[in-house]
Write a structure and sequence with these properties.
By secondary structure, the chain is an alpha/beta fold. The protein contains 8 helices and 8 strands; from the N terminus they run E-H-E-E-H-H-H-H-E-H-E-E-H-E-E-H. Helix 1 packs across helix 5.
């Protein structure tokens, strides 16, 4: 995959602005390097009139945002260079749904910071790479150190999202094989993103401590209230006392918050969920 797969212009030489750098040109450069590691990015103070390649954050072109008619998202959030580049590249990297989510939660706050000066911790961290006024350090060298920093952040963010996408695939398969109420995962994987969109009440999965855990499923991504808590009389109980109260010989722990139980066996974890449902009727 190269940049020429996405941009109908030359991408063998890419331009951005010189001088002081900000989060949008730094993260924009990092994004381009992720797509094409050997991309040649040059910092200039003006785009040559005969330049026919990719310029961003400079030149009032498609990937600049300093012109009076700069583009604005449908939600009213103004684009900066990072967001404009992501609009082209994001879906190819993460898929449309996750690209839109990443724009909303990661990129738009950085674009807003660049456009308005609103404080943002990542923007502040990038700004700290700029040489001080009297240091004599090379600004271009400092820029590419900042790009290395930003690239590492983006690569870890993308890896985390792709891992969740792999988990979603596994959890969807296990949900399809379940009764839709108690979902037993064939192996542990982050399950919230999928099951929160289902009608399921409990997720059961192998515990890293051995045995199995069962966990309540929240109402929604915004409301973390459990759809159904484990019984109040189980709260905070462990081992023999919990086994006696519940009548389930495999149970060994119920969190005081009633959102998690631990069992020695899969059968015990599922039985705890079924008994909870029966008691709630």
């Amino acid at each position: 995959m190269t940049l020429t797969d996405f941009f109908p212009i030359r991408t063998d030489k890419v331009l951005t602005h010189g001088g002081k750098f900000h989060s949008d040109d730094v993260f924009g450069a990092a994004l381009l390097r992720i797509v094409q590691p050997d991309v040649s990015i040059h910092r200039v103070f003006a785009v040559p009139e005969d330049f026919d390649g990719l310029a961003f954050d400079i030149g009032h072109g498609a990937f600049d945002h300093h012109q009076p008619d700069a583009r604005v998202r449908e939600n009213g959030e103004k684009y900066a260079a990072f967001g404009l580049l992501w609009e082209v590249l994001g879906a190819q990297l993460l898929g449309e749904e996750d690209a839109a989510s990443f724009d909303a939660h990661f990129i738009q706050p950085l674009d807003r910071s660049d456009n308005t000066g609103e404080p943002h911790p990542l923007a502040d961290a990038v700004d700290a790479f700029n040489p001080t006024w009297d240091s004599g350090d090379d600004r271009d060298e400092a820029f590419f150190r900042a790009v290395d920093f930003a690239q590492g952040i983006l690569e870890r963010e993308f890896a985390r999202i792709r891992a969740r996408q792999r988990a979603d695939e596994l959890v969807r398969a296990d949900l399809a094989a379940s009764d839709g109420v108690v979902v037993v995962l064939s192996q542990y994987a982050p399950w919230t993103h999928v099951l929160i969109q289902s009608e399921a009440l409990f997720a059961v999965y192998p515990s890293i401590r051995g045995g199995y855990n069962a966990q309540v499923i929240p109402i929604s991504a915004e409301d973390r209230t459990a759809r159904m808590d484990f019984p109040a009389e189980w709260a905070g109980k462990v081992d023999a006392e919990l086994k006696q109260i519940s009548g389930i010989s495999d149970l060994r722990f119920c969190h005081v918050g009633r959102f998690l139980i631990a069992s020695e066996t899969l059968e015990g974890a599922v039985a705890a969920c079924r008994q909870t449902i029966a008691q709630a009727k």
